[in-house]
UniProtKB/TrEMBL annotation:
Gene Ontology CC, one term: protein farnesyltransferase complex
Region feature Disordered, mapped onto this chain: 1-29
Keyword Transferase attributed: yes
GO terms for MF: CAAX-protein geranylgeranyltransferase activity; protein farnesyltransferase activity
Gene designation: RAM2
UniProt protein name: Protein farnesyltransferase/geranylgeranyltransferase type-1 subunit alpha
Species this chain originates from: Orbilia ellipsospora
EC identifiers of the protein: 2.5.1.58, 2.5.1.59
Length: 338
């Protein structure tokens, strides 16, 4: 690879002979712009050259260099990412990933390595993972990609963009397997409050088209959630997961009564260890016709255990006996990430 492809190198396109044939196009903000953005001079210059390149519809090795430089300064510029991918596809189709005249060379794998380095610098950037998705989809090869995401989870185990990419990998390459299930179990062992991992586990277990809710799978997931609840009774994620599994298996909520009463004996407020269990018990008591206990559970939530949402809990009290609970109760539904 030619030395000028180093993303760390400070560049001045106006004095670089390799860009002498390009007339930069400055940004046109119109006359007397009301809120003109004060870009850094080097960024303004690089974008002026990119506009000229895009106007000429040029797809060459120097476009990869130029977009690398701009992305280093502004990794959120989706137009730059889009033009870079378009250029990579052109170079691939024309067998131009090597330029013997300059010694420049590139490959899809080198691109993935470069993208990985950018991802570690800009962890919360969506465009990076969309670009990676386009590449892997084109290559039709997910080898090593799960390891890449797990490396990112070591930096932030709740990174939404990485989880979204991981879910796409599962769907694209049919990775609904034991390795994926084991990954969620490991991440939840490390942090039982990782709602992203709970989310992904539900997707792995129930998200594959045509998946049957086999009894043994439902029992396994119910026990998995209960064990997590025992570790952190006030953590809403496993309670949400537990309710979602029951809904998926069309299992009556009343089956949770003994388990929930172990955390929230409604007649002994001082012994209550989980407001989430108390919430579920209010539904169970309502379903079984024990109005007094249902009312007391909701009043305890309103007055003692979750007073911030007292209006919501008292609204729930008014619904008792109507079987008309709102679609979103005090415990959110676990769903797959978008």
């Amino acid at each position: 690879m030619a030395s000028y492809d180093s993303e760390e190198e400070e560049l001045d396109y106006s004095t670089d002979p390799r860009w002498a044939d390009v007339t930069p196009l400055p940004q046109d903000d119109g006359e007397n712009p009301l809120a003109q953005i004060a870009y850094a001079p080097e960024y303004t210059l690089a974008m002026s050259y990119l506009r000229a390149i895009m106007a000429a519809n040029e797809h060459s090795s120097r476009v990869i260099h130029l977009t690398s430089d701009i992305i280093r300064m502004n990794a959120a510029h989706y137009t730059v990412w889009g033009y870079r991918f378009k250029t990579l596809m052109f170079l691939d189709r024309s067998n131009s990933f090597e330029d013997k005249s300059t010694g420049w060379s590139w490959s899809w794998r080198e691109e993935l390595e470069w993208v990985g380095s950018i991802a570690k610098r800009y962890e919360k950037n969506y465009q990076i993972w969309h670009h990676r998705q386009l590449i892997i989809d084109h290559l039709d090869d997910a080898t090593g990609e799960r390891a890449v995401t797990e490396g990112m989870f070591e930096l932030d185990s709740k990174n939404y963009h990485v989880w979204t990419y991981r879910q796409w990998l599962v769907q694209r390459f049919n990775l609904f397997d034991e390795e994926e299930l084991a990954t969620t179990a490991r991440l939840l062992e490390e942090d039982v409050r990782n709602n992203s991992a709970w989310n992904h586990r539900y997707f792995i277990v129930f998200g594959k088209p045509g998946t049957d809710s086999a009894t043994e799978v439902l029992e396994r997931e119910i026990e998995f959630a209960k064990e997590a609840i025992l570790k952190a009774p006030q953590n809403p994620s496993p309670w949400s997961y537990l309710k979602a599994v029951l809904r998926k298996g069309k299992i009556e909520l009343t089956t949770l009564k003994p388990f929930c009463e172990g955390f929230s004996p409604v007649l002994s407020p001082d012994e209550i260890k989980s407001s989430h269990a108390l919430d579920i018990l209010s539904e169970i008591y309502d379903q079984t016709g024990d109005a007094a206990k249902a009312e007391k559970a909701l009043e305890l939530l309103a007055s003692k255990f979750d007073p911030v949402r007292k209006n919501y809990w008292r609204y729930r009290r008014r619904l008792l006996g109507s079987q008309a609970l709102p679609t979103t109760s005090g415990t959110p539904i676990v769903q797959a990430a978008a």
